[in-house]
Specification:
The structure is a single chain. The protein has helices at 9-15, 17-24, 79-90, 188-195, 247-256, 275-287, and strands at residues 5-6, 32-34, 41-43, 49-55, 59-66, 73-76, 110-112, 134-140, 149-160, 163-172, 198-199, 214-218, 221-227, 234-244, 258-263, 292-297. The chain contains six helices and 16 strands. The protein is globular, with a radius of gyration of 19 Å. Residues 109-119 have a biased composition (Pro residues).
């Protein structure tokens, strides 16, 4: 039976016309699935469903999502994450070589993929637990610096003009130098401003959308912040392990389909124990002129 599937041109180019047509005809597509974004059930025979192709260096995994959550697209992820996805699909319960990865709820085809252009960022570090918030630290070669910056990312809800917004806050653990410089200066904020982020002087006003940037949420966990690249989205920040978020955060982002990202230089925000303290820290950083921000969709939506 034909399925209500959306197959984007990018996905079709990766899997081929024959495989795409088989999916649309219902040959390889599941009837029921768990949305790879919001993790709630979906039905390809009753509602529009997006085909989402997660692409690694050598392999790719096809997953499914509500079209109202994310559009059909190709999403680059690490090869380790994809190997974990393939093992979960095939039922291999052996030890994983890397962190958990996105996977369809029902068996999905693994198809050859063209490796994404450009080197993947090196990953390191371990997550730190923060009560009532989720925090994760990872290396991200995100600021065009010869030194890799260790970026801490915190998720939380921010109340703006009486409306809750899902937000993430990025802060390096030390100064970030511009490529070609070897001094002690910190260019973290200037580099983000050059990427299109805007200064935030008042957290009571949401930052403006930033074209080409997106937040990758897979199976209800935060995987990466993506930025535009010559051959498609590339990771600006990528979690060493998928970062769990609260049910309230996930419910909010599934309602708005957007994430507010705030960023400040090392020491400007800090690791806060509660969301109200995080908001106080954001307000202070904004007052001190040390905060930038942007509004981003989920997974390039």
């Amino acid at each position: 039976m034909p399925r209500m599937l959306d197959v984007s041109d990018d996905v079709r180019a990766e899997i081929g016309d024959e495989e795409a047509d088989r999916l649309l005809a219902g040959v390889n597509a599941p009837g029921h699935y768990d949305c790879t974004s919001c993790r709630t059930p979906g039905d390809t025979q009753q509602e529009r469903t997006s085909t989402v192709l997660f692409v690694g260096d050598e392999t790719a995994v096809l997953a499914f999502a509500h079209a109202t959550c994310i559009p059909s697209q190709v999403v680059p992820v690490s090869e380790e994450q994809l190997q974990g996805a393939v093992r979960s699909i095939t039922g291999d319960e052996g030890p994983l070589a890397g962190p958990p990865a996105p996977a369809a709820a029902e068996p999905a085809p693994s198809v050859p993929a063209t490796p994404p252009a450009g080197p993947a960022p090196a990953l390191a570090g371990e997550p730190a637990s923060v009560p009532q918030q989720a925090r994760h630290t990872s290396h991200a070669d995100s600021t065009e610096s010869p030194r890799q910056a260790v970026i801490g990312v915190t998720s939380g809800l921010v109340l703006i003009d009486g409306v809750l917004h899902a937000a993430i806050v990025a802060e390096p653990t030390g100064p970030v130098a511009r490529a070609g410089t070897d001094g002690p200066g910190d260019d973290f904020l200037p580099l983000l401003l050059e990427h299109g982020f805007a200064p935030v002087t008042d957290v009571e006003r949401p930052p403006a959308p930033l074209g080409g940037w997106s937040v990758l949420l897979v199976n209800g966990e935060l995987h990466a912040v993506l930025q535009p690249g010559p051959a498609g989205p590339v990771a600006w920040w990528q979690a060493h392990r998928p970062l769990a978020v609260t049910e309230a955060w996930r419910a909010t982002v599934n309602r708005t389909h957007t994430v507010l990202m705030f960023a400040g230089p090392a020491g400007s925000i800090g690791q806060q124990a509660r969301e109200d303290l995080l908001r106080d820290a954001l307000d202070k950083a904004a007052t001190d002129g040390l905060l930038v921000g942007a509004m981003m969709p989920l997974t390039g939506a």
